[in-house]
Every structure is written in C-alpha cells, then in structure tokens.
Amino acid sequence: MKSIQALGLALLLSLFLTASALAGDQPEINITDIKQTVVQMSVKDGVTRDDAVQALMSRAAEINLKYVARQQVSKELEARGLKTPYLDIFQFCNPEDARKMIIHDPIYAAYMPCRIAMVEDKDGQLWLMMLNLDMLINSELLPPELTEIAIRVNQAMLDVMVAGATGEF
Predict the structure, then answer these.
(1) pTM of this prediction?
(2) Which of 141, 144, 73 is nearest to 111 (CA)?
(3) What is residue 91's three-state secondary structure?
(4) 43: which DSSP letter?
(5) How many helices (H) and strands (E) does the chain have?
(6) Contact criterion met (CB below 8 Å) for 137 and 147
(7) Which residues fall within 8 angstroms of residue 129, CB to CB, at 6 or more apart?
(8) Burial 118-157 (b: 16+ CB within 10 A, else e)
(9) Per-residue pLDDT tens over the stretch 111-149
C-alpha cells in the first residue's frame, strides 16, 4: 500500500513539475534525501528530559551562544487536548555571525536562528536534532572567513547537543 501511495505522490509531483515547467512562472523545486540534512543524537539512558534541557541550556550559556526562543510544541498540543510525543525546539544565535552571513548572502537567514529539537520517537527514546551544517561547510559556497564562522557555529551547536544528550555540562 505504501508503494502505491509513494508512486501516486511521485506521479502527482511529476505532473506538478511538468505543468510548472510549461507555465514558466512557477518556482523550481529541488528534492534531497532529508536524513542527510539532519544531525541526530540520542539522549543517553537515565538522562531525563529536564536534565537534558538544563544541560543544553547551561552549555549554550557557557559558550556564549545566545538563547533566543523555545517552542514547547508538545506542551501546547497537550493544552489543546491532543496526545503527542514530546517535542521541544530551542533556538540560539550569535547576532554578529548572523550579520556577517546575511551580508554575504541573505539566503543564509533561512538557517537562523540555529535550532535544536528534542523529540521523542515512537519507542519513547529522546533525540536531539539539528540541521547538518557540514553540507554548507563542505559546499564551497562560502568564502574562507564565513566558512570559519560556519565551522565555529556548527561546533558550538554540537557541543550543546552533546551536553543535552549526556546530561553533563
């Protein structure tokens, strides 16, 4: 059944793309393997949600990564009476780095602020996830001074994830 649904979706997408190409005024669509765009890290057994949150927030503060927002998605859904797996999204930013990136190319604003999601899978395992910045770093799209920023931000985000995953800070 899933293969029939996938085939139907592919045909529908193909028709849309063909119609769009003929129309000439529609945006181009590129599709990639979504799993390559995300870094996933499991939260160590015995580390509670609260421990993971406290550890990642403490580590971010310690390395001067500015905490800018938190979206407690599962809490909001439960308030609406919807049972849901745990989902919490944390957002961080270094404003000076953000400025340099968008001066080079405004498209990088789509990556900001940097996000770490804490999500519970169907087996109850907690995971921390973020965009895989290695794809950007290794793309050769950035000049050397911006590559250095991307590497530094990527390492900082990974440090925050490790702290959350281990419960240590």
Answers:
(1) 0.76
(2) 141
(3) strand
(4) P
(5) 6, 5
(6) yes
(7) 38, 39, 40, 41, 116, 117, 119
(8) bbbeeeeebbbbbbbbeebbeeeebeeebbebbeebbebb
(9) 888 999 999 999 999 999 999 888 778 887 888 888 999
